[in-house]
Amino acid sequence: MKQGQNESVFRAFAIIEYLAGCEDWVSLRGLARDLGLVPATAYRFLSSLKSLGYVQQHPEDSRYQLTLKFASISARVLERTQLRRIARPYMERLTAVSNETTHLAVLEDNQIVYIDKVDNLQAMKMRSRVGTRGFVHSTAVGKSMLAFLPDDERNQILERLTLPPLTKNTLTDREEFCKRLEKIRARGYAVDDEENEVGIRCVGAPLFDHVARVAGAVSVSGWTITMTHERLPELAPILQDTCRAISRELGYQLGD
């Protein structure tokens, strides 16, 4: 094992991969024997994976098997891969038309995650990076996704959501924020007017999948010197057309 690598992580994934390759339930002793582990050590790892919901035990003989939680994770990874592949050419065209940076983001729990980005040709580049997380309440992508969620799903997120003031423009009043979401839903897109970062303005709109579920969001972002208030009415319809085209490729039927 290389320096800096964690032995516990390697053992946990060895157990996961072993169980994934088994067609039937597996006994503790059989797993420990095949992986060269002390049974007590294997038991500790299995117990931890069970408490996290990744492993289940047979009620009669206590043998082990992976749960469908892994299938759920795999499905999300595949969905993101498909979403990036479909959205990428549209984002490139959107960047070419606007000469601003475009982002692709998804909602994960009560945060956004950037899964793709197309930079513009300007000298000053956006500091955002693929894989980074961000706030829902202060970003155009976050607000646009939240606004179009089903009421019960949106309310669950709102219950957990904190509204920290990131700039002087950040909306931190919960009641006012909910009113803002209703306006976004009626208008079809959201604006981040230096609410997440001073000097940055964005417009974002949601994407929908084949079952009319929010699949993500695309935003056009830029420095306020080029991304002016006057450009928003011009860019918003172009962004919305782009998001409708991506949604159609995801299987969304307009009018759903």
- Detail the poorly predicted runs: none
Which CATH architecture of the largest domain?
A: 2-Layer Sandwich
CATH class of the largest domain: Alpha Beta
Output the structural class. alpha+beta
Lateral arrangement of strands in the main beta sheet: 5-4-3-8-7-6
Radius of gyration: 22 Å
- Total of DSSP H or I helical runs spanning 4+ residues: 8
SSE string, helix = H, strand = E?
HHHEEHEEEHHHEEEH
Shape call? elongated
- According to CATH, the homologous superfamily of the largest domain is GAF domain
Keywords:
256 residues, alpha+beta, Arc Repressor Mutant, subunit A, Beta-Lactamase, 6-stranded antiparallel beta sheet, two-stranded antiparallel ribbon, 8 strands
Provide structural commentary.
There is one protein chain. This protein is of the alpha+beta class and 256 residues long. It folds into two domains: 7-67, Winged helix-like DNA-binding domain superfamily/Winged helix DNA-binding domain (Arc Repressor Mutant, subunit A), CATH 1.10.10.10; 73-249, GAF domain (Beta-Lactamase, 2-Layer Sandwich). The protein is 45% helix and 19% strand. The chain has eight helices and eight strands; from the N terminus they run αααββαβββαααβββα. The strands form two sheets. A six-stranded antiparallel β-sheet has the order 5-4-3-8-7-6, sandwiched between helices.
